[in-house]
From TrEMBL:
Keyword check for Cytoplasm: no
UniProt subcellular location: Membrane
Cellular component aspect of the GO annotation: plasma membrane
Membrane topology, as annotated: Multi-pass membrane protein
Protein name as catalogued: NfeD-like C-terminal domain-containing protein
Keywords from the UniProt entry: Membrane, Transmembrane, Transmembrane helix
Transmembrane spans: 12-28, 35-55, 67-85
Cited Pfam families: NfeD
Cross-referenced Gene3D superfamilies: Nucleic acid-binding proteins (2.40.50.140)
Length: 157
């Protein structure tokens, strides 16, 4: 019977395709995993979803429409769901590390400090004392892209 054959062949195709894509996530090389992380997995899950919908459908759409549905679901999941699942790197400034001022930091204003090889914007925690250029300072914390520093003379006896 051609009805049973077409009714069952498309969902089985999408089921097999989805399983292959989900398993492909396990076998990707480490270099590709960071950039393309979860793309085959989400595409596989979307093809499994298309297979489930075709199993439940009373009328099977043409194959080109099935591909269109799968591509739309895959694209939407990669664009919207994948960024929520991927871990983002958090850069943490270690507590009380040393830096060197590049420009003068006036009271209540920001200046520039050299910290771990990069020049950062910084302001002094004590808003009343100025810090001259080319002085050693301690980094207390980071607020956005600005470091909060104190001069080293506060810690000297």
């Amino acid at each position: 019977m051609p009805l049973i054959d077409s009714q069952l062949s498309f969902p089985l195709f999408w089921l097999g395709f989805g399983l292959v894509l989900c398993l492909l996530e396990l076998f990707l090389p480490k270099t590709l995993v960071t950039y393309y992380r979860f793309v085959p997995l989400f595409s596989g899950i979307c093809s499994l979803l298309v297979a489930f919908l075709l199993f439940r459908a009373t009328r099977v759409p043409e194959f080109k429409y099935q591909i269109f549905y799968w591509m739309g679901l895959s694209l939407a999941s990669v664009i919207w769901i994948r960024p929520m699942i991927r871990k983002r790197k958090k850069y943490v400034v270690r507590e009380a590390t040393e830096a060197k001022t590049v420009t003068e930091i006036l009271p209540g204003e920001t200046g520039r400090v050299l910290y771990e090889g990069c020049v950062w914007q910084a302001y002094c925690e004590d808003r009343t004392c100025p810090i001259a250029s080319n002085q050693k300072v301690f980094v207390l914390r980071r607020e956005g892209n600005t470091l909060v520093v104190v001069p080293d003379r506060l810690f000297l006896p």
